[in-house]
């Protein structure tokens, strides 16, 4: 089997990988993008909320938007919800969003191969795949999600993960807010109801050690919401998945002569409190594609500069979220539990969250 040697190999065609592939291919590089799924974005493992500002990076997002969100309601304890006005977001069809970005990458010249899993990445940067191909790229971009094999090859592993479970159910009345449910039962996470037209995504995330509680806790939340006549009882879809919550990993490395860049979840760019990672995947993927082009265009410093730029953009927000997450988790020490105040202070709707 001959060894292929593209300028860039992108592993994963989620938002980060598609963006990286599109930008690198647009710069004239030969780009192969490998995705283990049959199509990009399917099955969906997402609550499908993005900040409205993502439209600057992905103007076509409107074509895949199901509805707008204007507020956030935070439920903690028995109090009425705290209302956060001017919380502008979009509920998207995530499958269509990922397909759109992958199509843009192909249109820009990346060769996108599906149903191909990266099986191993060796110390020289040689990549073995399930579809028989062997590749030795000049630049390897790991956009392969929270349990990134490319990241593992350069010793960057997301060790702190939240596990999630989500159902899509009928929504009885139209809703314009994301609802957030905080509870000491949701160890290391929270629950959500995100409206999407006539349906809602209702989900729950908890630290992996508590994952056995996901099913009963989500069932109890859904029962409450059905009793309040907010949702129907029919489950239209069920999903879940891991979310990295340990903060940013160093996103660059070398395997022999191959330069390695990580983007999106693989680089630990998901917010440790909210779990949001689509916008940062798009942004980091774009920068990774550009860094690959600069590096191969005779700018050897472009690899380190990529990691520095990610730090400049994301460190402040991710480090704040990490601190808040740890403050809440500390309340469980010695068998304790966070009270309503501690839970609220650790959530983005609270002024305390944003304090120094
Ligand atoms: C239940 C849930 C709800 C979420 N809700 C939201 C939300 O509402 N808003 C938000 O902003 N974020 C949300 N997130 C987080 C968000 O989905 C991620 O941050 C985002 O998908 C990261 O994009 P990515 O491109 O880095 O990785 P991914 O989207 O995970 O893409 C990685 C791709 O790599 C592929 N891949 C992995 N390993 C291999 C391999 N060995 N070979 C080939 N291909 C491989 C995968 O199949 C996948 O397509 C949620 C996550 C979960 C689990």
Question: What can you see in these coordinates?
Answer:
30% of the residues lie in helices and 27% in strands. It has 9 helices and 20 strands. With 356 residues, it is of the alpha/beta class. The chain starts with a strand and ends with a helix. The longest helix is centred in the last third of the chain and has 29 residues, at 302-330. It has a 7-stranded mixed beta sheet with strand order 7-6-15-16-17-14-18. It has a 6-stranded mixed beta sheet with strand order 9-3-2-13-20-19. Bound molecules: flavin-adenine dinucleotide (FAD). Flavin-adenine dinucleotide binds next to helix 1, strand 4, strand 14, strand 18 and helix 6.
**Rounded to an integer, what's the Rg over CA atoms?**
20 Å
Per DSSP, what share of the residues sits in E-state strands of 2 or more residues? 25-35%
Percent of residues in helices comes to: 25-40%
How many DSSP helices? 9
**Bound ions, cofactors and other small molecules, one mention each:** flavin-adenine dinucleotide
User: What ranges have pLDDT less than 50 throughout 5 or more consecutive residues?
Assistant: none
Q: How do the strands line up in the largest sheet?
A: 7-6-15-16-17-14-18
Overall 3D shape: globular
- Gap from first CA to last CA: 56 Å
**Number of E-type strands:** 20
Mean pLDDT over the residues: 97
H and E string: EEHEEHEEEEHEEEEEHEEEEHEEEHHHH
What does the main sheet amount to?
A: 7 strands, mixed
Question: What structural class do helix, strand and pairing data support?
Answer: alpha/beta
């Amino acid at each position: 089997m001959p060894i292929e040697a593209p300028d860039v190999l992108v592993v994963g065609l989620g938002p980060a990988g598609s963006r990286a592939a599109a930008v690198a291919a647009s710069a004239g590089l030969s780009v192969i993008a490998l995705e283990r799924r049959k199509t990009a974005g399917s099955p969906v493992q997402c609550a499908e909320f993005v900040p409205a500002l993502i439209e600057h990076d992905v103007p076509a997002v409107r074509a895949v938007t199901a509805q707008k969100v204007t507020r956030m309601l935070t439920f903690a304890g028995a109090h009425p919800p705290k209302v956060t006005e001017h919380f502008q977001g979009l509920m998207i069809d995530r499958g269509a969003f990922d397909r759109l970005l992958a199509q843009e990458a192909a249109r820009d010249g990346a060769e996108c191969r599906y149903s191909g899993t990266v099986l191993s990445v060796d110390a020289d940067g040689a990549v073995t795949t399930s579809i028989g191909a062997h590749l030795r790229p000049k630049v390897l971009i790991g956009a392969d999600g929270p349990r990134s094999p490319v990241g593992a090859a350069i010793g960057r592993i997301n060790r702190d993960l939240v596990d999630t479970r989500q159902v899509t159910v009928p929504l009885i009345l139209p809703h314009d807010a994301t609802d957030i449910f905080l509870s000491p039962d949701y160890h290391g996470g929270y629950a959500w109801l995100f409206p999407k037209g006539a349906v809602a995504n209702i989900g729950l995330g908890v630290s992996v050690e508590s994952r056995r509680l996901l099913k009963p806790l989500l069932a109890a939340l859904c029962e409450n919401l059905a009793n309040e006549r907010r949702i129907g009882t029919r489950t239209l879809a069920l999903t879940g998945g891991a979310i990295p919550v340990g903060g940013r990993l160093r996103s660059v490395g070398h395997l022999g002569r191959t330069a390695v860049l990580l983007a999106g979840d693989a680089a630990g760019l998901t917010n440790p409190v909210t779990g949001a990672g689509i916008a940062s995947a798009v942004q980091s993927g774009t920068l990774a594609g550009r860094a690959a082009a600069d590096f191969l265009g005779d700018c050897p410093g472009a690899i380190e500069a990529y990691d520095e730029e990610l730090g400049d953009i994301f460190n402040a927000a991710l480090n704040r979220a990490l601190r808040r997450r740890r403050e809440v988790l500390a309340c469980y020490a010695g068998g304790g539990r966070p009270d309503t105040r501690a839970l609220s202070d650790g959530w983005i709707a609270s002024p305390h969250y944003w304090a120094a």
